[in-house]
Amino acid sequence: NNEWGQLAQGNRDYDVHSEKVKIAENVVHVDYSREGFAIYLTKDNKLYAFGHAGKGTEEFSKKYGYDKTAKLFDNNYYVDTPRLIMEDVGHATGGTFHAALLNDGTVWTWGYNPADNCGIADSLVVKTPTKVASDVIMVWTGRLQYNSDKYSLAGFDGQYPAEMMNTVIEKNDGSYWICGDGVGTEQKTVSGETEYTVTCSSKFVPYEFP
After folding, report:
1. E strands within the chain?
2. CA-wise closest residue to 85 among 63, 112, 117, 66
3. What are the residues whose beta carbons fall under 8 Å from the beta carbon of 186, sequence distance 6 or more?
């Protein structure tokens, strides 16, 4: 699908594209969200993004969406060619929220933050990359299944389990720390399409593997 220009081919449409088209080289990592936003990281530590501008950063949307070449779809701006958004990045991960691990060991997060999963309190959407940790050697983000014995989509038969939204970091000393959904004791009400309550922590706490 290419409704947000997320194939980075200089256009957007409703077609399903089956042919492979080269859009970049010297890429060491790529990630894509279900929201039409994609990132890739190159060998020279540059992070590029494209697709649904509203799912990127505030600067990304303003710089590449509101200029004279603005492209509008469904009342949101989109970017149909890769744009450089960060440098000196050692690793990056994307989804409904995003994290970048810089070469200096700092972690920066942004995006959808209903369970304080970006490591930032009381902000439903973190609009700009914000530093949340240091002395880090690896970072993971995502929706992690829990309370389920199913390991494939087919096994759910259309009934999907609850999901957790977390950021996990590994520090220089080998310890693991986690924030977000299912962490700590704080309860907060999230208002979106529906209202629901989550137990979460915006602060990273030590994580012990089961």
Report:
1. 27-32, 37-42, 46-52, 72-73, 76-87, 89-93, 97-102, 107-112, 125-133, 136-145, 163-171, 176-191, 195-206
2. 63
3. 199, 200, 201
Cα-Cα-Cα-Cα dihedral sign, residues 51, 8, 6, 49: negative
In what side-by-side order are the strands of the sheet with 76-87?
A: 27-32, 37-42, 46-52, 76-87, 72-73
57 vs 100: which has the higher pLDDT: 100
Q: Assign 93 to helix, strand or coil.
A: strand
Identity of the amino acid at 158: G
Task: Give the separation between CA 97 and CA 50, rounded to whole angstroms.
Answer: 15
Q: Model-level pTM?
A: 0.81
